[in-house]
Amino acid sequence: MTAREIIVVCLVMLGAIFSVLASVGLLRMPDVFTRMQSATKAGTLGVACTAAAAAIHFGRTFAAIEAVMVVFFFFLTAPVASHLVARVAYTSGSTLWKRTIRDDYAKDRAKRAQDVARSTADSPPVPSPPTISE
User: Fold this and answer.
1) What SS3 class is residue 42?
2) Looking at residue 105, what DSSP letter applies?
3) Separation CA 11–CA 14 (nearest Å)
4) What span, in angstroms and rounded, lies between the C-alpha atoms of 8 and 67?
5) Considering the domain 3-95, what is its CATH architecture?
């Protein structure tokens, strides 16, 4: 085996290890927020290692450009997507792990709930739509 092939094998194995760690994290973590953190970080690193291995294996400029674009896309979109999913999970009332030490948004959640309750109590009832009679 050449040094290039050894590097490719090592990168593929490292990518596989990160991907397995991401799936283990999905199964073992206690709540949706820690699961997302595990899957996002380890999964992104797994894809990055695998794409780098593909670029080195093929050894062409076009393959390297594609690998860089894939890694850039993953590094750009994975954190944003996991942040949005976490935000929706939090605002919809997903429970935090019982050993969570800090909840920075608890005050905002309570204030929003009070604002919604106040606005619905003050608003007039919505009229029923008219019915069509024959």
Assistant:
1) helix
2) T
3) 5
4) 13
5) Orthogonal Bundle (1.10)
pLDDT tens for residues 4-42? Answer: 999 999 999 999 999 999 999 999 999 888 898 888 999
Break the chain into its structural domains and give their ranges: 3-95
Q: Which residues contact residue 91 at a Cβ distance below 8 angstroms, ignoring those fewer than 6 apart?
A: 109
Assessment of whether the complete model's pTM goes beyond 0.85:
no
Exposure b/e, 69-97, CB count within 10 A at least 16 = b = ebbeebeeebeeebeeebeebbeeeeebe
Helical H segments across the chain, by residue range: 3-28, 32-58, 61-91, 106-122
